Amino acid sequence: MAPFSRLAAVAVPLDLANVDTDQIIPARYLGRTRAQQVEGLFHDLALDAEGRPRADFPLNQPAFAGARILVADRNFGCGSSRENAVTVMVDRGFRAFIAPSFGDIFHNNCFQNGVLPIRLPAERVEALRDALRAAPGSTIEIDLASQTVRGPDGRVDGFDIDPFRKDCLLRGVDEIAMTLGYEADIAAFEARREQDGRAA
Q1: pLDDT at 178 over 70
Q2: Which of 65, 28, 56, 32 has its CA nearest to residue 43?
Q3: Phi, psi (deg, nearest 5) at residue 97
Q4: Per CATH, the architecture of 6-171 is what?
Q5: Cα separations in angstroms, 11 against 7, 8, 71, 153
Q6: SS3 175
Q7: Which H or E element spans position 179?
Q8: Cβ pair 170, 144 in contact under 8 A
Q9: CA 68 to CA 26: how far, in whole Å?
Q10: How many C-alpha atoms does 197 have within 13 Å on its Cβ side?
Q11: Quick one: DSSP state of residue 60?
């Protein structure tokens, strides 16, 4: 996966709390290829009963086309453990989510797919969504190294992240790739252990 260091991009607001993984990608799309699953992103929220785009759904609005940052409400990504809820958003171009809170499994899956989930206080996240609605197409800047977010209003907020996960994102590796980076050390340890066993 691509390293994540800095991102300045159009951000889209989603004013819905408790958006679960089935709303992100309905279960009926899970049997399709990964490329086809993108068609199901927010399907039941984005389209009406006749399959027509809802004009009030942010991702249907031209100003938010190409958005790479989603600013959501509390408990985003709750529900089932389907990793597709993250990968479908990656395939749609998203690299970061900002919300007051996330579903635990969704939060973990973000890091495994090179996506940065940022928790900020609820009142600040609401202010960001308000600013994005007031000026559609506005950008947010994220600097992972300094752990900061600059909103459309110029205000800079810090955020917390586990140091190991931060390092993985900066290097563009997941936990398995990180472990394989120590393959030579592991092999040397195993060789020493085998020799010690023979000596005993």
Answers
A1: no
A2: 28
A3: -125, 140
A4: Alpha-Beta Barrel (3.20)
A5: 11, 9, 7, 13
A6: helix
A7: helix 175-180
A8: yes
A9: 21
A10: 6
A11: G
Phi-psi region of 52 (alpha: psi -120 to 50; beta: other; left: phi over 0): beta
Residues 6+ apart with CB under 8 A from 131: 138, 151, 152, 153
Paired tokens of 35: 């490329």
Name the residue with tokens 């472990």: 179
Element (H, E) at 141: strand 139-143
Question: Residue 102 forms beta bridges with which residues?
Answer: 76
Nearest to 132 by CA among 58, 77, 76: 58
Q: What is the mean pLDDT of residues 104-125?
A: 97
Nearest CA-CA partner of 147 in 13, 2, 10, 7? 7
Return d(Cα 6, Cα 57) in angstroms, integer: 28
Interval 15-39: pLDDT, tens: 999 999 999 999 999 999 999 999 9
Q: Is 34 helix (H, G, I), strand (E, B) or coil?
A: helix
The pair phi, psi for residue 194, each rounded to 5°, is: -65, -40
Packing angle of the helix pair 104-112, 163-171 (nearest 10 deg): 40
CB-count exposure of residue 146 (10 Å: 0-12, 13-18, 19+): exposed
What does the domain layout of the chain look like in residue ranges?
6-171
CA distance 106 to 85: 8
**pLDDT (tens digit per residue) in 83-111:** 999 999 999 999 999 999 999 999 999 99
Contact 99, 74 (CB under 8 A): yes
